[in-house]
Design a protein that fits this description.
3 domains, Rossmann fold, 16 helices, 30% helix, 6-stranded antiparallel sheet, alpha/beta, 9-stranded mixed sheet
Length: 556
Amino acid sequence: MTSGSGKYWPKGLPETLDVPKTSLYYNLEVAAKRYPSKPAIVFYGFTLTYGEFLEQVESMAGYLQQACGVKPGDRVALYSQNCPQFMIGYYAILRAQAVVVPVNPMNLEDELRYCVADSGARTLLAAQELNEYACPLLNAGDIDHLILHAYSDYLPTRLDMQVPAAVSAPRLALGDTKLTLWQDALARELAPAAFDGKCDDLSVIAYTSGTTGQPKGCVHSHVTVMASVAASTVWRGGSPAFSCLAIAPLFHFLGMQGGMNVPIYNGSTVIVMQRWDREAALLLVERYRVNMWSAPPSMIVDFFSNPALGDHDISSLFRLMGGGAAMPEAISRKLKEEFGISYNEAYGLTETAAFILGNPVERGKRQCLGIASFGVDARIVDPAILEEMPEGETGEIILHGPQVMLEYWGNPEANAKTFLERDGKRFLRTGDLGYMDVEGYIFMVDRLKRMINASGFKVWPAEVESIMYGHPDIQEACVIGVPDEKRGETANALVVLKADASSAVSGEDILAWCKQKMAAYKVPTAVELVDQLPKSASGKIMWLELQQQARKRFRE
């Protein structure tokens, strides 16, 4: 049985979709020509029109080409929290016919260095508060060019709301001739070469943490990203009359698509927040009459738990959507009964440029991944023998569709494990376990892959363990996922110290070390020192047994 078209297909929608055979950059060019004076980006009250947006994209693209030597197909890294510069930089890289490498701004120096080195990026666009991690790469020759931006350059002269300290911080006078400040690059007003990019050109290499220790680069073309953009727009409804809230991180495909690429495709206005703050979000939704918001459930839950909600008019908000984790049943019910909003749950991966399965807007099921969207073939197979499973039985979700990535960057071994051929189609093995009901809706059950979902952020234990093994006193480490009331799930670590380790080394010491070596969301909540870890006959640490024991203690 396959999910998708049939009796429960959304009324009025085609079963397949003609995906535009153009570049993502063309979407901005069209919107700017149609609506040159319309607000494209609003950042805590600062407004950038579509005409100004395109003009700055052109200038930055010219700088990348003429000053940084960026050529078609080159990779350029983008390392920043949400801000206008992220959006301008993203489209400038595409305008230069290069490939965007979005790097998680929570990553520290070594994690950044890995993504830059693996992708081959030689130019980096970064926010100034991340300079302590970015500048060492420039000094060491890992990159040739570093362009720093200050969020405050895109703030109104008079602020009437609280903003994060990093946002209001003034532009630094760095005085390092190796660095280029964002405003200085724009001031050059260099014109880019004529654009002759094709839809099949590479557009984005986004890194997803790996099951075997190192992140993998998911390679997308303009058309694979566009397939997800176009599908999400038609499925959920999009309009230039709408305004959208962009809080989910833009480096991640959930925010990149829902908070940037989809609104630009539609010519909508994007209300951008640098990071999550429910008080600021409430003010912005009311002030700018926000209609659509794509976010992980944790943000939605926090927003609608705000006791000040009743004092504000949020009646413009009619479409909430997202994925990454199941929306709690109680919150779904509250949204529907108190606000008349149906949270549209969907499913996607970095490997699918986000949206690939979705609940029909008018007939969604709660805590459900949805059905296969336009032109998508979704099946449930036995993960061991890869034979299709009967209706209602649990197996691995495999996906074929126009938004599926081309490959993992420079990783033939991972490609061989991830893709399979079936009925003349190339399917992606998701590593997620689920079942399909009689109506073709797919429900998530568990993960085949060893992964921890902490507030929507994917934490791969093998990657965290790999970093922890760099600690001079650690002999063995095992990272497990345990329930957490706020994050849903969090990582804990069990550690065996080396025989010659000082007796003064504590779990707190190791935690402090971890905070200096990895992104905050990867850092274990707790480190427990143990004498030994259980192993199988082949010598592998029995992580599943340890995880089950920990979860049993939590339930008790």
